[in-house]
Every structure is written in structure tokens, then in C-alpha cells.
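User: Here's a chain of 113 residues. Predict its fold as C-alpha cells.
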Amino acid sequence: MRKPVDDATMSREEIDDQFRGLMEGLRTTIPGVMVLFSFLLILPLQSSFTEISLSNTIVFYVAFASAAISSVVYLVSSVVFGDPLAAAQTALFSTVAGWAWFYLPLVRFKKDD
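Assistant: Prediction complete.
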């Protein structure tokens, strides 16, 4: 078990090792999430997607939104701006995505009727 490390006593080499470990983890995680997201993105375009139940559709959308938010918004924003702004960006993205996914089709289909 690793003991907690005091940042003030860490050497440059220890910091570099931790940074390399973080980067290796990101290099393997990000492509995996993006592949998952791409498969989830094309699934509704398949003709058999209309045959799944409502509960399965909801589970699909939760997985889709989670993959999008975790890979596209929060991870990138937290690296670039830090955690508080990343949380705000994620909330904003979630709101816009929910609006575009649910509200716009309702308005559009009502208009067509």
C-alpha cells in the first residue's frame, strides 16, 4: 500500500513519474470511451433500433449521454480549466444536449402536424 505523499517533499522525478502514469492512463481510457461513444452514436440509425422497448431505449440514452459527457466535456475541461469550470461546462453541455435531444424534436414534430 502506498503511503500518502506530501507535495512539498516530492522530487522532480517522482512528480514526472506520477505525471507519466496519469498520461498513460488517459492514453488508454480516452480512445476506449471514444470507440464506445461512436458505437452508441450509430446505434439509433439501425433499423432494428425501433424494435427495442422503452426501458431499453432509456438505458441506451443514459449510456450515450454518459459517454459523451465523460469523454467530450468533463475530461477535456478539467485538464484545460480545472474542476469547477469543468463541472459548469459539463452541466451546460448536458442542458444543451437534453434540449436538443428532447425539446427540439417535440417542437419540430408538432409543427409538422
